[in-house]
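To: structure desk
From: M.T.
Subject: fold request, one chain
Message: Could you run this one when you get a chance? Sequence is below, nothing fancy, just the single chain.
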Amino acid sequence: MSPPGRSSLPILGSKQASTSPREIAEAMRAEGLPIQAQKPRWLKVPVPGGERYQKVKATLAGLKLHTVCAEAHCPNVGECWGGGTATVMLMGDTCTRGCRFCQVKTAATPPPLDPDEPRHLAEAIAELGLDYIVVTSVDRDDLPDGGAAHFAEAIRRLKAIPGLLVEVLTPDFQGDEEAVRVVGRAAPDVFANNIETVRRLTPVVRDGKAGYQQTLDVLARMKAEFPGVVTKSSIMVGLGEGEDEVVETMRDLRAHGVEILTLGQYLRPSAWHLPVAEFVTPERFEALRQQGLALGFRYVASGPLVRSSYRAAELFLRGELAARPGPASVEAR
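Reply: Done. Structure tokens follow.
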């Protein structure tokens, strides 16, 4: 990520240069860091373990639930599971999109949905005794509603557990407004949809069915129609974006009603995926956090190992939502 006053990284050329997504991708692969490049000390994490970690792992495995913690090889799995938190995946473990940063396996026609999955999920969370759960999913563009009704059923079952706060990180449903409403009517406490990267790199980093403006519109729709739901998004850095582009993306998120932001380092899952352009230092992450707060985000979690469902953001939201006088207001539409 190029700081202010410095041109974009050489792999992307000058920002004034007119380059196609294909040319940008080729340059990124040619000039990015090799996959075997040594990671800086701030990206080292301890081996996961501990009694609570083992309990969460065993419970989720026993109920045959997929977690993004495992499927996406999240570096924070030890911290989150050890603290009794997990980010659970709905709608199976196979995505209909092939983003160039994501480890989750893909297929044009994944297996059918399991109608018992929402019930199984609620049973698992009740057994774990959690007070905050993050639920995400693969994209299911093969389904007429993108899986919105399935998501909504899971939210309703989870909200029936006393004292449980529910955060969802959903697909963009290809921008379908009614699908967003279906999720909103189920009254999650927090609704997240990730912008992932800056506008210029979106066609290279994300699947063609995704879109920078599409993500912004989904977030804005949720906030406009269900104002009691907290909105959240996430940005990866280290892909060759300029720091001014990151700030522009932050401004766009705020302009579309997003309240919570997480920023983290992109880490390359395999040789097929896009290479890392640079390892952003903790000091620069802190500077971005301060810029985000100055722009009006209610909370910004920013650091090399921060991910969209990072536990620090969860702890903030848990405290803030618990202090609210009653449940989130949801209008019937």
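Reply (cont.): The CA atoms of residues 25 and 331 lie 43 Å apart. Let me know if you need anything else for the meeting.
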